[in-house]
Design a protein that fits this description.
10 strands; globular; 339 residues; ten-stranded mixed β-sheet; 18% strand; Rossmann fold; alpha/beta
Length: 339
């Protein structure tokens, strides 16, 4: 465990495990139900909606790009952070991050094309090759000259491609449980062997969890220790039930063609975060990728699966906040409380 992790609020005491209260769940559900306004002709409208317990307002709307309307929400003021969700999520996935960061940053969450409430228009397709351009359209629509990017799993492909193409528009990048679009077979021999050893030990666990009705991105520990949280994860995933995620997953795997050496070209600060119990993304891959990025930082979180941001938000949020603070983000007075 790194020194920064050792200083975070963490305990193995089962009585102190974070749980979702009924109030929290109701708040998320109410946001999901009320976040979308449509005009009489079916077109999207932006709105201002107060967030309970947070003085900031939520600005929401759609951005049109290449046959899709990309839904987004912006909460708070300050330097902008854009959060890019994974295959099992949408903009609501970041419900534990937005209240934490929005008193200090403008938090932008969005749903990738094909994920509810984003929608396709005539001729539109759910093509991962368009995700990067969708992000650019969103950033330009909101007139964000420079952004901080937080990417989870699938969102890593969006954000890595964007950062490599538009480095002048990215202040810092967080890559959580993701390879982006990197072909892990292009890593050096020692790194490939470490990943192969992980695959030999855990490679079949994803399918085994699915057979048992457990979402692999949530993991067995979340089911056992935080059943309400795992239920909420599955409910958010179900919001995009009409999307063929198996077909999309196949498209993503076909897009894993970027040479690992491309990461050496990254000129922005990068933080990699992984869960030690991840059964989807190999933690040894995070180590290998971080070693390729000049000056990159790596944090590995114990007793945590694929979704560190969802399962251990108190750790994830502090790691990301401190990382941004160290790279031109909001500076807090000593001993100031956040979140």
């Amino acid at each position: 465990m790194s020194d920064s992790l050792a200083s975070l609020p963490w305990s193995n005491n089962s009585d102190r495990r974070p749980m979702i209260s009924r109030r929290d769940f109701t708040k998320v559900a109410s946001i999901a139900a009320g976040s979308l306004f449509l005009s009489s002709d079916g077109g999207a409208q932006e709105k201002q909606a107060p967030v309970t317990g947070n003085p900031a307002a939520v600005r929401s709307g759609f951005v049109q790009n290449a046959g899709a309307e990309i839904y987004y929400e912006q909460t708070g003021d300050g330097p902008p952070i854009v959060f890019a969700h994974g295959l099992g999520g949408n903009h609501l996935s970041w419900w534990q991050q937005v209240p934490y960061f929005s008193p200090h940053y403008a938090c932008v969450t969005f749903a990738h094309r094909g994920f509810s409430p984003s929608r396709l228009t005539s001729g539109g397709t759910v093509d991962p090759a368009l995700f990067e351009d969708d992000l650019l359209a969103l950033v330009e629509h909101l007139k964000l000259a420079e952004v901080r990017l937080v990417a989870q799993s699938m969102g890593g492909s969006t954000c890595l491609n964007f950062t490599l193409r538009y480095p002048q528009r990215v202040r810092a990048l967080v890559m959580a449980s993701t390879r982006g679009t990197v072909d892990l077979k292009t890593l050096d021999g020692a790194d490939r062997k470490a990943i192969e050893a992980w695959s030999a030990e855990r490679g079949g666990m994803e399918a085994e969890l699915l057979k048992r009705g457990i979402h692999p991105a949530a993991g067995e520990r979340m089911v056992r220790e935080q059943p309400a949280l795992e239920f909420l994860y599955r409910e958010i995933d179900r919001l995009s039930a009409n999307l063929d995620k198996d077909a999309l997953r196949t498209k993503f795997r076909a897009a894993w063609t970027r040479p690992a050496s491309d990461l050496k070209r990254l000129s922005v600060p990068v933080l990699f975060i992984s869960g030690k119990e991840d059964v989807i993304f190999p933690p040894p891959a995070a180590v290998a990728l971080a070693n390729l990025v000049p000056g990159a930082k790596l944090e590995s979180v114990p007793e945590t699966g694929h979704s560190v941001y969802f399962q251990r938000p108190e750790i994830f949020n502090r790691l990301v906040f401190n990382f941004f603070e160290a790279h031109g983000g909001v500076l807090l007075p000593p001993h100031a409380e956040i979140g």
